[in-house]
Write a structure and sequence with these properties.
An eight-stranded mixed beta sheet has the order 1-2-4-3-5-6-7-8, sandwiched between helices. The radius of gyration is 18 Å and the shape is globular. The C terminus is likely disordered. The relative contact order is 0.16. It has eleven helices and eight strands.
Amino acid sequence: MSTFTAPDGTRLAYHLRGEGEPLVVLPGGPMRASAYLGDLGGLTAHRRLALLDLRGTGDSALPADPATYRCDRMVEDVEAWRAHMGLEHMDLLGHSAGAALAVLYAARHPERIRRLLLITPNPSPLGIRATSEDRLAAARLRAGEPWFAEAFPAFRAWLAGEADFDEVFLPFFYGRWDGVARAHTDAEPQQTNDEAAERYFGDGAFTPDVTRTALAALTAPVLVHAGELDGGPRPDLARRAAGAFPKAEVAVQPGAGHYPWLDDPEWFLNRVLAFLDGPAGAAPPSAE
């Protein structure tokens, strides 16, 4: 574990894993410690992952001001981290809610991005977001699963605001509901700062028109990576998000949910490496 100091004096921690060119990683959750990302499907054999514990999560300190948990307030944490690591430019990966932070960083500091990877991203900074209908449509794709009959009504009730979150519908977030997925969900409560998560998408965090205008200056290639079975975002929403970037490509991983590196590590690894190893200024390939 290594540490640095954020502009407001909060001590933030990050973890270095693997060898090779650095890949800077922002976790989702929102506000889940970076441990849940593991080795991202084996990327540590090819890249040196730098995984940030966002303020108030994992090994990072609690901030003096809880208002700084809001997503846009942490953009300068990322910039301070980049400077601390001595990276003039960086390949930046954000997962889920962490992709929202990555988009805001790219909009504010486009000159620092060499490549941007948005893995099953929350596209709220662009003024779009997965709806309950999106999530239910994706959930219906799992109708043949043995757990579906019990999970779907509970999921629908939760999305409608008629019931509390229920672990019975956690399988909808994974392409394969197996021992690996179960262990991944079991660790979540100990890894997440619930107060911070409630503030992450707080009022005022996003100004979509401003962000979209700023992203016009981003010359770096962008990968928007979606899971075929994921409800947030569904592949169509991922394609809409990609349209906000001058140079973007979309990958849809077959049979994958919200954590594609767990569902098929080899597919995920090969697709991400193909993007990372491609020419930084090349035109994007076909969308799928």
